[in-house]
Design brief:
There is one protein chain. The protein has about 725 residues and is mainly α. It has helices at about 10-20, 25-50, 55-80, 90-100, 105, 120-145, 155-165, 190-200, 205-210, 215-230, 235-245, 270-290, 295-310, 315-335, 340-360, 380-385, 400, 405-420, 430, 435-455, 465-485, 490-515, 520-530, 535-545, 550-575, 595-605, 635-640, 650-655, 675-685, 690-700, 715-720, and strands spanning about 365-370, 455, 610-615, 640-645, 700-705, 720-725, 730-735. It is about 60% helix and about 5% strand. Helix 27 (about 635-640) links the parallel strand 3 and strand 4. The longest helix is centred in the N-terminal third of the chain and has 26 residues, at about 25-50. About 55% of the residues are buried.
Length: about 725
Amino acid sequence: MRRSLPWLLPFLAAAVGLMAIDVSPGPIVKYAVYFALAIALPGTLLLRAAWRSTGNWAEDLGLGSVVGATWQLIGWAVFTALGWQRWLIVWPALVLVAFASVRRLRSNWRITQPEPLPVLWTWGLAVASAVVLGATTLGVMAFHELPPQGSAYYQDLLYHLSMVNELMRAVPPELPQVAGERLEYHWFANADMAAAADITRLTPIVVLFRLWLLPWLVVALLVSATLARTVSRTWWTGVLAAVALAAPQLYLFFDTSVNLSAPLSFLSPSQTFGMVACVAAAVFLIELLFRGARGWLWVVTFAVAILGGGSKPTVLPILVGAVGLAAVVMLVQTRRLPVRAVVAGALLVATGVGTMLTVAGSTSGSGLQFLAVLKSSGDYAAATGDMTPAGEGGLVLPALTHGAVVGTLVLLCVLLINQSTAVVGFGVLGKHRQEPVAWFLVGALIAGWAGYLLIDHPSVSESYFIHTAIPFGLAAAGWLAATIVRDLPARTRARSVVMALALGTICAGLLLVADAKPVGSQRHQLLLVARPLLVILVLAGLWWLLRRRPGAGLVVVLALLTVVPIKSFAQSAVHGDTERAQRFTAARWWVYPDEESAALWLGKNSAPTDVVAANTWCRPAGKQTPGCDARGYIVSGIAGRRTLIEGWAYTNEAMAEQGVGGRRYTEQPSPWPERVALTTEALTAPTPDLLRQLREEYHVRWLYADARDGTVSPALDRLAVLRHSVGKVRIYDLGE
């Protein structure tokens, strides 16, 4: 009971937070029961049967949830392909029935060799989970309202909503914005949401906007804590990893205008889901390669790796880097070929190639450019004088080719400060360079940093590499700290922790004071941008003074882990928006009430596989002219229906045109101009032959005509059946 009661805290934080915004108790209880009985429990039983128990329920359920999601993905694909979505609940039920009825499997319901973790570990993870869940519900979820209550929606959310709806009706899925084309995106997280909606019978809107993320945030903390404890064999390093992931989210209690940042991201479900799978696969790989595990764990490991690769393209390169570097080190150390590591690496590479060719779209438009990520800094132009946008330039950062070496170095140093949690882990080699596991962690970090610093994506998506690698850095930092602590007396340990917190607070204060808007001459702007480098001078000076004292290394490690969370919390508390009622508003992403109402009507009164021709491919609402932002997802997202053509910005075809004609990929002309022309003509100058072509050639059943987005001909009232009209939107039925 002492180890169970603390977990009521995160559950209450989530329930109270959801009810405080717009979710009633019924869906909360239903989803909690669904996740426990259809994901966590079946996955835990399968994991124990294939491998073993970790010795405690919390870590078992964390890793087991990832295995359960992998199992559910298989069932979702089979049942959806056969059109049996409504019976998907049978798939996890088969596991529960099998483990209850087969004598050989019954032992997996209990832990035969318990290795309970201290109660302090449980409280640490429970409190960290409660912080993340409270911040997510009361902060970012409250900021992003459910359709149709909202007036504007962050464009990626409606895009994800369109994929959830698509994945509830077809395998393989079509591109919701271009009916008949293959969906090329890393959509496994959306498939998990689709399965959740099929089983719970809750709407995709509620699942995506409110419920799906919350249990996966807890699982993210659990698997990160498990990775840290696995490598260090010290319980409190797991708490350190969980707290380090949770602490930066504290700012959401004060600043609702800032969205939940990676690696735990509301706005990028694929990041959270992919990171969870990546860390779980890493735990299994460590057991296989360094701890002697064998058998069915190989199957589980690579099934989870596929889950991660189909969720985020950053996952498999990081795992390949981890296994690859560890294999090279073992080869050098032992002069023998590490067969297991070589096999694992080859399988991961093959898995990566397979997912890239099938379910890891959105990478088009990416190129190689050293330090390209610096262009995303708000201070880049001030420090270097260069205005080159993301996704453009040569192999080397344009600022360097223009001679702005000093400014580039300053920005790089500031970047390293802001990513201190992904830097400090490299220090593990100072104590454990003979350990292949240490090189495994460092290999993951190197791969993460390589992707972060070498890839140039038009939307700065290279940042997901470093966010996915952060749990590896935390595990390495925790292992380093645990090694240092073992040689210190108790009083020195306590004193070191206090000093680290004080030092982290001082450095965070310096970062806040140094933060200033660059103004004046180029030299003066560069000096203002460089002011945060005072933190490096302070750390270096204190290290010099304390370098011979016991615990100096622990002070520096913990201080680096606390600087960014303290700074983000303090900055939000001082400058944040404390109005709880404020919501996401952006003129570009405004959706009018009649547009939402019409879309919801269409979703309720049409078949899931119906195709709609709509003039809503660009935002904001207005005449759909060439060069407008092609991220309109009202029909494919809110209505949940396939469209003849809607927002094409996130397709590989559009992203590959980044920079052409001086425009971003979001403003490029449609790769399917014939569909745009056909839709426009059908709404502005319809004829019987034209509407017949829509029905027979493209299987269009409905017309969604928004007068804000262009002319709507009165002739449609004669040529088609007007089924619904509200405000400026008219919906026509073209018949079977």
